[in-house]
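Session log. Operator J.P. requested a structure for one protein chain; no other inputs attached. Running the standard single-chain path with token output.
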Amino acid sequence: MSIGQDLTWSLSSVKIHTAHNWKLMFEAIGGGATESHIAIDDVMLSHTDCPQIGACDFEQDLCNWKNVLDPNLDTMDWNWSNGQTPSSFKGPEVDNTMKSPQGHSLFVDFEALSVGDTALLLSEHLPLTKGSCFMFYYSTNISRQLLHGALTVFRYQDGQESVIWEAKDAQTKEWRPVNITVESSTVFQVGFKAVKSDNAEVGYVAIDDVAYSAGVNCHGVHTDGAVWGSSETPGIVASVIIVLAVVVSLTVGLVYWQKKRVSAPGTSSRQFGFDNLFYRSQN
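Structure written below.
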């Protein structure tokens, strides 16, 4: 985990494989700053694979994509449904993943919106990149011929939006692919925005099968991994190995100490929850 993230909550996930009983431990090490903090929230354990960063086919849920809940930024949510579910909101008849009414997608029904209403969907926070490919499929069924402003994709950094793609061609119900190479020197998010700009505007815009190739642009070129070919690579690798060895040693020691403490007479065993262990140097 990097430092200097200000007040931004970042999403992290890790895949765990084990055939034995285990505990999850979070370790925070202060860097010496007088005004700083490290915080965690919303810890969740799932018996399925971790979702790929920035990706979702929307068959089970929205994965790590979130409808914005800020009235200063949007007024409506993207709807999650399939073509066979009875609903007052109208979306695509089939999705792109399954090509059937049973498949799910996200959509915005313009008939349910007023002029100026906005629906905003944001990804999790993505790491800085010299070029990563962002891919998705979209479908439109709007009363007007051109789609200017109806559906846009933007990069969201420090509260600022930068449009990186906009639907401009004639509307069609067919699912069409879009590939966009995204660059950013800081942590950022990708967002989908649907805006109703005309009273006569009816129909929908929909998205499905979102994917993100971190560190690989849309031409298949590895961008972010180029730094590992520098002359500093051996030193960096050695440092990482040393740090990992120290962390593993400390973890094993703590687990052994914890087992002895729990098994000691007069102590109770806790199967669930988190223990708060606090250590302070004698110096």
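Operator note: The radius of gyration is 24 Å.
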